[in-house]
Amino acid sequence: MNNHKPIRILLAKIGLDGHDRGVKVLARIFREAGFEVIYTGLWQTSESTMYAAMQEDVDIIGVSLLSAAHMTVVPELAKYRKKLGIESTPILLGGIIPAEDHDAVRKMGVTEIFNPGANTADIVESINNLAKNNTVPPRDTLLDGYANADQAALAKIITQMQAGENLTDWQPPSGHVPAGNATVIGITGAPGVGKSSFIGKLGAELRRRNLKVAVVAVDPSSPITGGALLGDRLRMMTGKPDEGFFIRSVASGEVQGGLGPHCADLVKLLSGFGFDVVFLETVGAGQSDVTIRNAVDHTMLLLMPESGDSIQYSKAGIMEIATHFVLNKCDLDGADKTHAQLLSAVGEDRPIYRTSSVNSEGVPAIADWITSLR
Amino acid sequence: MSAKPTTNDSTPANVDSNPFVGPQDLANFDPEKSLAEPGQYPYTRGIHREMYRKRTWTMRQFAGFGAAEETNKRFKFLLSKGQTGLSTAFDLPTLMGRDSDDPLALGEVGRCGVAVSSLDDMRRLYDGIDLSKVSTSMTINAPAAILLAFYICVAEEQGHTPDQLRGTLQNDILKEFHAQNEYIYPPRPSVKLVIDTIEYGTKHMPMWNTVSISGYHIREAGATAAEELAFTLADGMEYVKLSIERGLNVDDFAPRLSYFFDVHNNFFEEIAKLRAARRIWSNVMKNRFNAKNDRSLICRMHCQTAGVTLTEQQPMNNVVRVAYQALAAVLGGTQSLHTNSMDETLALPTEGSVKLALRTQQVIANETHVTETVDPLGGSYFIEKLTNEMEAKAHAIFDQIDAMGGVLEAIDRGYFRRAIAESALQENKRIESGQQKIVGVTDFVDDEEDHQVDLLKITQKTEDAQVARLKALKTNRDQQQHADALANLKKTAVNDQNVMPALIKAAKADATVGELIETMREVYGSYDGGPEW
Ligand SMILES: Nc1nc2c(ncn2[C@@H]2O[C@H](COP(=O)(O)OP(=O)(O)O)[C@@H](O)[C@H]2O)c(=O)[nH]1
Ligand SMILES: [Mg+2]
Prior knowledge:
Structural class of chain B: alpha/beta
Number of domains of chain A: 2
CATH class of the domain at 23-64 and 170-433 in chain B: Alpha Beta
Mean pLDDT of chain B: 92
Structural class of chain A: alpha/beta
Number of strands of chain B: 9
Number of helices of chain A: 14
Strand order of the largest sheet of chain B: 1-9-8-7-6
CATH superfamily of the domain at 23-64 and 170-433 in chain B: Methylmalonyl-CoA mutase
Largest sheet of chain A: 7 strands, parallel
Largest sheet of chain B: 5 strands, parallel
Number of helices of chain B: 21
Strand order of the largest sheet of chain A: 9-7-10-6-11-12-13
Oligomer: heterodimer
Order of helices and strands of chain B: HEHEHHEHEHHEEHHHEHHEHEHHHHHHHH
CATH topology of the largest domain in chain A: Rossmann fold
Bound molecules: guanosine-5'-diphosphate, magnesium ion
CATH architecture of the domain at 23-64 and 170-433 in chain B: Alpha-Beta Barrel
Order of helices and strands of chain A: EHEHEHEHEHHHEHEEHEHEEHHEHEH
């Protein structure tokens, strides 16, 4: 049942150290090698890293450690990997690890060690070989897990669906995936407008109101290599990792229109799992990327200050299908002007929110609205 | 949204189709205008007429060691040996504005430098050292204003006023956004804090160097020489522009700005880079910012050999690399120099290798005779052509930055990070394809190699003692005074006033680095690094 799918790898930097030259070079090399790369950014903990690995169902966990803290960090990694039920996922460690510690580090659960300057072709080959050994648990085991709220099982089912299976392929013997009753909200808008950061803030706000949140975040795949740099997650994971905030990064693959393979089914799967709110973040839709409408209950279009000109010329398409408008980055200059342009373009029938992820302005009001739907 | 990467000219600069350079390559070159004499505008040939004939560069070796007491002991030792400058390295939590008892500080306290969370830590760090007599450099950026406030308070307790203090604060937040990642707040409030310290320093600390504008970390993160040059000078211009907007007179603060460059392997390119830096800076200061004082026009610089070029394999080769890089810095006319130790790719350097690094400089200064004539390479067709090319590349990059609206806008778009990461990737590819050789790594590899490295063993004791002391301080201080001081700081930040006086007041109320940072965060917000890819 091992479908053809790109290798997924997590790249994590743990601790306060900010030297990221190595991880960034690797992230690019891995994309060129056709991998889907989830980079979680700076200042991660062992716990947040393993949560990411579990929810993203990666084939390989790559950890960069430059601060010589390996003897304390590796046991922590192993502990959370076990706790989250992904013990078989290999850990690759990059950084300054003295030879005398290699055996100890391997015993603690690391599969491969690469010192700075290691040949990247060797690293890619090692990943390819390790990923070959990964097996998918039997379907019934996964379905049992899904029914018992096991997120690791959920994450693996998502992977299978991404690789080409439909929701109907995942009917439990007892019937079908429960419908759930999640409120599904599409988040769209140009790349860089702040969609992922906004979901991060809004998600945290909803968690404070005890709603369980899941996110499907789509980023583009390289049309040439099939690889992808999936960078949405790093904007969203601001607080402590949390079972009630499930984030899944998806590569668009060959799917056009701003979504990835089977996103509508994914949303149903998450709803059935018991999440209260499911966000679906698009690639950064173009004017005609309106397929999202079919997968969601509400569509929020994010705009930012100084994007007024594009509003004027684009009343059709994405502007038409949006049910809510969010003028994000209101901490920047020019918000009032763009707000006025937006008002004159779309009228007052649909709500216009003003937000900023820098100071969380405006986000609680949207959380209030979502809570009122529940 | 996405900005085009810079002229990603990562090809080694002096690979030319011609085997040699001649007068035809300097067709429109006017030595009167572009070079003049050393010590004369545009200072291409050096900032002083006599340069090293009168006084060699300062050999400044930077290092960090553990707890305040240990560092204090080392300082006193160095002072007793006749050294007058102290260089202070802080540990990672302090650099990130976190107290020693912060959960994220665990395992990092006092490891790569000294932990300073409170005025009391600073007091113990400089205990028994007369701060009116020494010059202190502090490598600190995001929390620089806070550490400066602590320093001023310690001096005041010794009976000295700020105007008696001499030293340097690195205080260059812009390069943190481009490269080193030790930022806390978003770019605009972060830069506002830098301008606060420039304003305070200009008014109260005339002998204090307010910012050391740094290309070093930009280069180490992967930038090309031209990118290092251009990004760093662009940062410098941004500080000047904003300080003038603050209402300061350019000639009052500009003489207190200095530069910090990396010196890499490409020998002539590096020399050209340093010469171009001086020419560009003097032109910009004179023509764009209308500086009148000669001291505002000169680009004073500190240089350091390139840590990224050192290899773990055959570490003795690093001694040779460092020596050539150091020679390039000297031929490029640096004011001070740090030479890396051969074994520091794997750990903090041993005492023997630190000494060898210093000796490397001393050999250049005392045995090679390169110090006897100023700018000995000046007028070489090749060097002048390279210097012109460096200048032209820098201007092309300035134009790109201007087209985006300026340095801050370019940060918003991820321009610098993307350009640097792209250059790092290109270099990696050149190395792995065999186009760029590294002796002992890509070529001339030893089969049997035994890397024996002594890694610094961390003692948990230093950390535990520091955390306990900090906890006691937090319990025993005057809580009312402390709360008032933080409220006052917040008000100052909200009202967009200079925070220095409020920080000094709060330092005296035993507010900690972490508390001060968090108080300002309520006003300034957090930064997530900006666009990444
Ligand atoms: N000033 C400001 N920057 C923001 C805000 N929200 C996001 N950003 C920045 O915009 C960039 C893109 O954000 P991201 O959430 O990845 O955008 P996406 O591509 O739409 O998902 C990042 O550098 C964020 O730091 C905001 O409210 N204000
Ligand atoms: Mg996004």
